[in-house]
Amino acid sequence: MKIIIMGCGRVGSQASQLLAKLGHDVTVIDHDNNAPARLGPDFKGKVVPGVGFDRNVLLAAGIETTEAFVAASSSDNANIIAARIARNIFRVPRVIARLYDPLRAEIYQRLGLTTISTTGWGAQRIVEVVTHTDLDVLHVFKDGGTTLVRIEIPARLNGYQVMQMNIQGEVMVVAITRSDQTFIPVSGTEFHEGDLVHLAVIPTAMRRLEELLGIERSQL
Fold this sequence. Notes:
- The chain is of the alpha/beta class and 220 residues long.
- The chain folds into two domains: 2-131, Rossmann fold (3-Layer(aba) Sandwich); 148-213, Regulator of K+ conductance, C-terminal domain (Alpha-Beta Plaits).
- The protein has helices at 10-21, 35-39, 55-61, 76-89, 105-110, 119-131, 162-165, 206-213; strands at residues 2-6, 25-30, 46-49, 68-71, 94-99, 114-117, 136-140, 147-152, 171-178, 181-183, 196-201.
- Strand 1 (2-6), helix 1 (10-21) and strand 2 (25-30) form a beta-alpha-beta unit.
- Helix 1 (10-21) runs parallel beside helix 6.
- The chain starts with a strand and ends in a 7-residue tail after the last helix.
- 37% of the residues are buried.
């Protein structure tokens, strides 16, 4: 996967290194000339100097063909501007924004942006959210323990029941949208092809959920 990460601080540099080690094509944008040193000599990606909301810098980083954009700078304002440019102008499929001020979380969500908060778990959560591309991540809760995702029920799961997707303590179906109506299901509710299902998932269960849905992870 081709990924651009804006910001090479603690979270940005760690996420860049982790994603590069997984074999992804990573480009880092940072205005600091010391960014390459923070990434280390083993970093296989590319570094583009500049700010992540400059059109020319974004084009130099390959924004037109990138599959994911992560705004992980130390400025909430810069992150939200860059994330909106990536999403609304360049139509990047997956956009994630680092968030320092939790009071702004609602603003990010209204704009349709996935937010990542706190340094302690931020880098690893970025990797998980970016790489599980077939799961539409709506929100990562503040403590990083639970993720809200949305999936569309494929034909093969038509007639399956909610109880067959719930995994105690790991995955829970919290709502279903069908024919523009959203409702809270019970354990015996059957899925229909095309249902939009909202699930609460702990990070370590993302892979199990993909296997349950029959999602093949891309081979790099």
